[in-house]
Specification:
Length: about 110
């Protein structure tokens, strides 16, 4: 009986380790989303800082595609961040469920 309990506890610990690895992956995706979201802000800052050196109407054919690209990057970055937050909550629910089922893990995880 004790051997079976040890196996179940071992499996539960492995499950939590797997979920925590997935959680780290979601955090990496969130970090990537933040970086992607910061890129358009940097580009627009440079364009605004150098705006006295060009006439907007003369470079409009460059600014429109750049604006569309910046918008796409903002949408993509927001998608990555929102998706990772949803996944993090999902993994937290999994961990809470495993903690509830296996009391031995509750000691080690907050």
């Amino acid at each position: 009986m004790s051997d079976d309990t040890n196996k179940i506890d071992s499996i539960a610990i492995n499950e939590v380790q797997l979920i925590l690895a997935e959680k780290r992956t979601s955090l990496a995706v969130m970090r990537t989303g933040i970086a992607v979201l910061a890129l358009p802000l940097s580009v627009m800052s440079i364009l605004i800082a150098t705006s006295k050196y060009y006439n907007v109407l003369h470079v409009l054919h460059f600014l429109i595609p750049l604006g569309a690209l910046n918008f796409a990057l903002i949408v993509f970055g927001a998608y990555l961040i929102i998706r990772s937050i949803i996944r993090l909550r999902h993994y937290d629910r999994f961990i809470t469920e495993i903690k509830r089922k296996h009391s031995i893990i509750g000691e080690f995880i907050e």
